[in-house]
Amino acid sequence: MDYRARFEALITAAADGIVVIDAAGLIQVYNTACEQLFGYPPRDVVGRSVKMLMSATDQEKYDAYLDSYRMTGQHGAVSPSLETVGQRKDGTTFPMHVSLGEGQSPDGNILVAIIRDITERQNAQRQTQELQHELLHVSRLSAMSEMSSALAHEVNQPLAAITNYLRAAQRTAVNINDPAIVKVREILEKTLAQTARAGQVIRRLRDFIEKGETNRVIENLNSVIDEAMGLALIGAGDTGVRPQMEFHPRAPNVLIDKIQIQQVVLNLVRNSIEAMQETETRDLTVRTMIEGDFAQVTVMDTGPGLHPDVAGRLFQPFTTTKGAGMGIGLSISKRIIESHGGRMWATPNLEAGVSFHFNIPLSV
Ligand code: ADP
To answer: What is the domain extent for residue 341?
Structure first.
């Protein structure tokens, strides 16, 4: 096989699209993979401007680049790799990654472009971002409902006391016909009505928060946890944590609101990662198990363990040892698990650190 035949076989067999253009931007080589990417057969493109493979915006940029190349004879800032948009024969576009290399041929300068369709990668990225966004949203929403619920609870007590005092004042002023006292009775009556209204508003708020909106579907707990771990570990690269997942081989099926359960896992994993910043060994183990009629999840770390100040009231709102902590992550998590018919608890580890566990009834 001569050199040229070998070269052609290589180009044809390549999984990535390969386009070679000459100094004038005319297509010289267009391989089989390109046919699949762009939808044109080679005879429609070879000898024509490479612009036909670009989206409208890229065509403009390319024109500007060619002008500058003609004036200076320099390729200038041709970046060796870029993400851009390709255009198919039918006019549709797709995101592509292009690696560029300059070279020489007997006829002058050439530019070799290796092209890969990155639609799937971008979709996966978008899905991850959407999920993260949704989790953040749920977490903000849960924080808000937790606070409103605590607030409603706190405000209810003084409201009940106000109502009692008002009734007592009414009783004291009853049967006194002094015009000023009659006026006071009227005012007391109106105040009572308004206090009752405030109580209703708070009751409605609590009902709303407690019922909440959930979206329960039968899910495979292993994949739900796996996905949540992926998200929790994004950005945990430089924390020195060594994650390990031990999944029960009989992937447990559970009826859950996936986003809420992932929120719980995210809270537990983030707490563990944060706690382990204080210790030398940073092993994080996430395990799924089946215990009787329940699927159980354990998040175990090798951190410093629970601070004695918080150990007894870990799941109460506003319990925190962190300067910037709100102390509501665990109370929200426990509520989510309980609303799924499960339990949440923590145990100290034998060697070091703490394990958080929760369980959810298995779905049959
Ligand atoms: P926050 O993280 O805002 O403090 P949380 O409710 O998530 O709120 O946690 C409450 C407290 O529980 C933390 O401040 C911390 O003291 C303790 N805690 C939670 N997880 C761990 C852990 N893995 N190791 C040690 N302490 C923990």
So the answer is: 217-361
Domain identity same for 11 and 103: yes
Same domain, 92 and 109: yes
Domain shared by 133 and 232, yes or no: no
Determine the atom of ligand 1 nearest the C-alpha atom of 326: 3
For residues 293 and 364, is the Cβ–Cβ distance under 8 A? no
Question: Are 338 and 244 members of one domain?
Answer: yes
Q: Do strands 343-348 and 354-361 pair parallel, antiparallel, or not at all (unpaired)?
A: antiparallel
What is the pLDDT, as a whole number, of residue 203? 77
Q: For atom 21 of ligand 1, which residue has the closest CA?
A: 271
3-state helix, strand, coil in the chain (%, to 5): 50, 25, 25
Is residue 285 domain-shared with residue 337, that is, in the same domain? yes
Determine the length of the chain.
364
- DSSP per-residue codes, 178-195: -HHHHHHHHHHHHHHHHH
Q: How far is the CA of 279 from the centre of ligand 1 (A)?
A: 15
Q: How many angstroms separate the alpha carbon of residue 347 from the centre of ligand 1?
A: 13
Q: Which of 264, 330, 335, 358 to mutate to test the pocket of ligand 1 (most atoms within 8 A of CB)?
A: 330
- Predicted confidence (pLDDT) per residue in 274-332, tens digit: 999 999 999 999 999 999 999 999 999 999 999 998 998 999 877 888 887 778 889 88
Q: Quick one: 112 and 179 in the same domain?
A: no
Residue ranges of the chain whose pLDDT lies below 70: 1, 69-79, 208-214, 235-237
* pLDDT score at 73: 65
Judgement on whether residues 316 and 238 belong to the same structural domain of the protein? yes
Question: How far is ligand 1, taken at its centre, from the CA of residue 271, in Å?
Answer: 6
